[in-house]
Amino acid sequence: MAAKATTAAAEADEAGGEQEGQPKRKLPLKLIIIAAAALMGVVGVGTGGYFVFSGKKAAGPEQAAGPVAKPVAFLDMPDLLVNLASPGGEGKHYLKLKIVLEVPDQALILQIQPLMPRVMDAFQTYLRELRPSDLEGSAGLYRLKEELTRRVNAAIEPARINAVLFKELLVQ
Predict the structure, then answer these.
(1) Is residue 74 within 8 Å of residue 103, measured between CB atoms?
(2) Using CA of residue 23, residue 29, residue 34, residue 40, what is the dihedral sign?
(3) How much is the CA Rg of the chain, to the nearest whole Å?
(4) Are 101 and 159 a contacting pair, CB within 8 Å?
(5) Cβ neighbours, 10 Å, residue 135
(6) d(Cα 93, Cα 86) in Å, to the nearest integer?
(7) Are 34 and 66 spatial neighbours (Cβ–Cβ below 8 Å)?
(8) Which among 108, 49, 113, 120 is positioned nearest to 81, based on CA atoms?
(9) Is the peptide bond before 158 cis (omega within 30 degrees of 0)?
(10) What is the mean pLDDT of each run of 10 residues along the chain (172 residues)?
């Protein structure tokens, strides 16, 4: 019985010690500062080793400006006027487009011009299938740009253009 009382008293002291507000043991502040400094040193050495052994340079003022962009060229397309598909014969809707092709360099324009009838045919067949609702909102215009760019690139392959740009777009 005395052994049980001693064990119970020891458990009460342990439980009571935690409950009386004695703080749990924390890491000393010096140890935390030393560990943080060591971690920063390891990261610094690793980063320096990466740049030395990989042959890359750290971004400096001359590299931050980025590479100089090559000038692009623009090719005006003939104006397009097509009637749109009208569901249920609701009346006639027309689409008038003035398009400019953005090409990577001036030399590509000379390669595209002989293929212009093929490009115009690809545009006409696609645009005549559109409904007025397909061109609503910015999402509709974005899809139209992407589809026309894809069709131009297919028609002039292996050459590629950067983008189709709208100078004028009118749906009536």
Answers:
(1) yes
(2) positive
(3) 36
(4) no
(5) 17
(6) 7
(7) no
(8) 120
(9) yes
(10) 49 50 69 86 83 67 62 92 80 89 92 93 91 88 93 92 92 85
